[in-house]
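User: Just a sanity check before I run the rest of the batch. Below are the structure tokens for the first item. I only need the designed sequence back.
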């Protein structure tokens, strides 16, 4: 990323990100009928429902129990409300209350199955790699969604295929699940949060004043997975193992390429590992699989040093995106089965929720 782009992120660090306080009407969960479970997280379950009167299909996120998660859910409601109407981000309809438990639920747009399920289904069928034009269309939509999110000074922190939805019309993808999002209006330190396989190296190393560039790293990981069909950096259960997987592909940083790398908490431990000293990314993505213009995008998103990493806005200006492709994804025939499978236990993830933001929602 160029220095001008880096400065832009920093300049907005104190800007307001969340709408002013306003009264939010609350619907009743009894107005909806459950269809199936879409997914399950550490404190909540997402369920597909339809409105008993209007027939509208929605996705409703409800707490697993009344013992915890309420503040996290309300935080997510604030971020979803701030992102209303933005392209390639899941739509937000408001809150609903479960009268039996008095718990609040999030009512969101129903989009379709996750990109994680879509890619897993392709692997199980032995499908060929996605065409570069399809990858370009998906990445363009995701970068646009990320750009709009960052313009509101919100950092998602957990972008991954499981948190990206594929529309039923096969023409659109949308980022969802803002449960770990933070506002750049809050000053650092920021805690470590996200999923290891998609977590930026500066976060893994212990940097506490990171910014929106952690999301563009995650988008680079998603782009690589779209091309490969599986995660680029996987199979690691801790920060050191994950960093080793990253540096073994991108090369171990040195003080010239990343001046402040050695000052990070885990840097000394990384220096003892026998990771590659050179960048092998192009070897894994040769020109027959990814054009020169496409590799420029991938390489810029996956720059270990965040000072050199592309912002979403900068990446979208590159020549690879000069041609706009229509997105057409062929989904598995048994779509509902693929959706329900996302409720199965997921890989271990590092999950630390920051202190609650100042209260802004006033519930009726």
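Assistant: Here's the designed sequence for the first item:
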């Amino acid at each position: 990323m160029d220095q001008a782009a880096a400065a832009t992120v920093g300049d907005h660090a104190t800007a307001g990100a969340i709408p002013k306080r306003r009264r939010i009407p609350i619907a009743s969960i009894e107005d909806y009928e459950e269809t199936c479970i879409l997914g399950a997280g550490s404190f909540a379950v997402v369920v597909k429902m339809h409105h008993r009167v209007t027939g509208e299909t929605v996705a409703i996120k409800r707490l697993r129990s009344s013992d915890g998660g309420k503040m996290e859910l309300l935080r997510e409601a604030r971020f979803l409300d701030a992102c209303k109407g933005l392209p390639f981000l899941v739509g937000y309809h408001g809150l609903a209350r479960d009268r039996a438990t008095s718990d609040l639920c999030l009512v969101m747009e129903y989009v379709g199955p996750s990109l994680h399920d879509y890619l897993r289904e392709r692997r199980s069928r032995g499908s060929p790699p996605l065409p570069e034009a399809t990858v370009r269309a998906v990445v363009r939509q995701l970068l646009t969604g990320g750009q709009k999110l960052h313009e509101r000074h919100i950092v998602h922190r957990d972008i991954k295929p499981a948190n990206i939805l594929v529309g039923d019309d096969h023409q659109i993808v949308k980022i969802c699940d803002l449960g770990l999002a933070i506002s750049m209006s809050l000053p650092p330190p920021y805690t470590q949060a996200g999923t290891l396989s998609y977590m930026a190296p500066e976060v893994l190393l212990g940097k506490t004043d990171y910014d929106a560039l952690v999301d563009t790293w995650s988008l680079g990981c998603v782009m690589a997975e779209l091309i490969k069909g599986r995660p680029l950096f996987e199979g690691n259960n801790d920060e050191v193992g994950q960093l080793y997987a990253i540096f073994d592909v991108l090369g171990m940083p040195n003080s010239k390429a990343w001046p402040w790398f050695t000052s990070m908490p885990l840097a000394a431990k990384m220096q003892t590992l026998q990771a590659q000293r050179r960048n092998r990314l192009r070897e894994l993505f040769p020109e027959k699989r990814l054009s020169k213009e496409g590799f420029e995008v991938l390489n810029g998103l996956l720059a270990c040093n965040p000072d050199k990493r592309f912002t979403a806005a900068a990446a979208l200006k590159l020549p690879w995106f000069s041609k706009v492709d229509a997105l057409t994804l062929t989904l598995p025939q048994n779509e509902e089965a693929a959706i329900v499978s996302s409720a199965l236990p997921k890989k271990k993830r590092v999950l630390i929720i920051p202190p609650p933001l100042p209260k802004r929602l006033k519930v009726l």
